[in-house]
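Good morning N.,

You mentioned wanting to compare the apo and holo forms, so I went ahead and generated the holo version with zinc ion. This is what I fed in:
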Amino acid sequence: MMTPLESLGGMLGAGVVLVSWWKALLFIPPFLAWARLISTVYDKHAARFHLAREKWNLGHMVAGTVALLVGMFLPALIGLEGIVGFLVGWVAMLLILFGDIAWYPAVANKDPRVPEEFRVRLNLDSFKAAREQKAAAKLAGTAELAILKPNKKLVTVPQSDAPEYPVRVAAEQLVIKAMEIRASHLDVLPASRDGAYGVRYLVDGVAQPGETLAPQDAGPIIEFWRGAAGMDLADRRKQQTGLITIKKDDLDTKAKVTAIGGSSGLRLSMKINPAEAVRRSADNLGLLEPQRQALDAIAADRGGIVLIAAAPGQGRTTTLYSILKMHDAYTKNVQTLEFETEDAIEGARQNVFDRFAEDQDFAKNLRSILRRDPDVVGVAEVPDRDTALEVTRGDLPNARVYLSLRAPDAMGAVQVWAKTVGDLETASANLHGVIAQRLVRTLCENCKVAYQPSPDMLRKLGLPAGKVSQLFKKGGQVLIKNKPEVCPVCSGLGYSGQTGVFEVYPFGAEEREMVKAGNLQGLRAELRKKKHVTIQQAALRKAVEGLTSIEEVLRVTAGDDAKKKSPPKQEPAPSGA
Ligand SMILES: [Zn+2]
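and this is what came out, ligand included:
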């Protein structure tokens, strides 16, 4: 007769059989590996991108428990004994664990909150190996990039003990950092009197200061990039450019390298992915819905002059290109006159004006284009009165001319245009519209922070108190297991990407009359009456939608009220447009 205690002992004895040392050895490691993967990779990944962490962890726990139970009891359930039974249970357990491991990436990688480069890759061994190798390479300073000259020839990596090797590594590190923080430009420029150089990154149109380089370090780095871009190294004064290709892992990027000499030394500028920067469809420019309709109406309308205005670096070229692309270049004669083609416009004839060549005249170039019976002409700049007058003498009832001008807003553009032409009557004739824009940085969706604006703040911004209950500001950090970590999507900047804020004003007879009379006040009132919004209003709407912050709107529209009284200031030309 067995006592209850003895029967319990018997059951434990059976359990001990299960955990005989070799069985335990087969059971425990897969569990440890699974648990480690869940807690160190998946859980952190979920926290970083605000996925439903608790639900995921619960799911993993359930899967783990089921795997353990199946591993232990499946053999007895289906009546298999001994080693065969054990192995069947063990394999079933492994399958469940693997299923759980595959489940998370299958769902999380489709989540729009997870940017493509941060997707979970299942091939963890190679992923880990690649990361370790990269960390080791950084420590030892290893060349990581493949760099192709403009003629597509590979720039050879020097031997690791050669004196050129550290230069190559240092030159690469600048570009790698630029790519990591999504910079559109990288500049190395003489910074101070003691000969030091400063590195500057332009991210979403805002300069982010970088490292300071001693002259003996900066010089060879600049020379390296000049060589890679195929420049004449003996010429240290003239501006030279070269388009190179940079490859890193599976990334393939173009970079336009520009170098120019100055009194304090050579200055290097790299524009990363230049064509990508100007490639946006009209739908993605950032126009509000009524503005999009107004733009469609302007594009559908035949002939006349349309001004496209922005300050340098504020997306003017992107907008000019996307508006030109709204015209069918296969059935219409579409031409451009540009200083450089920043991207190809399919079907259009893009004429490049060489500003360094002698005996070249922008106005004459434009005249010959206007004589070729164009339907649509895009002009990238109006450098002088002769050019402006050529435009006004064109066959404007039939040829639509888009003129890209430097001005902070639509009113500024009208002033610049009138001043360049020289008389209001000629300037106002055939003026069919003005489009002006600026760029605001968009908040990083992964780390933006909601807050309730005070009634006082709303009043100052002119926003309706009852309708706006929350606004967003930049974050820059995410909490992972209660510890703040730099946001992986925006590298801690709080913003990721830019969008345009616009003024789209179609001009009819009334508007032209106001321009002719020099009555900007009246023009403004007329546009307001027709419910056309200003750049400032468009920007505020983006803040209310949660796309950007009030701080960013104020940064971008600062001084607008003062500008209404004084003529627009011309800003110095930067390296980008
Ligand atoms: Zn972020």
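DSSP finds 20 helices and 18 strands in the chain.

Happy to go through it together on a call whenever suits you.

Best,
F.
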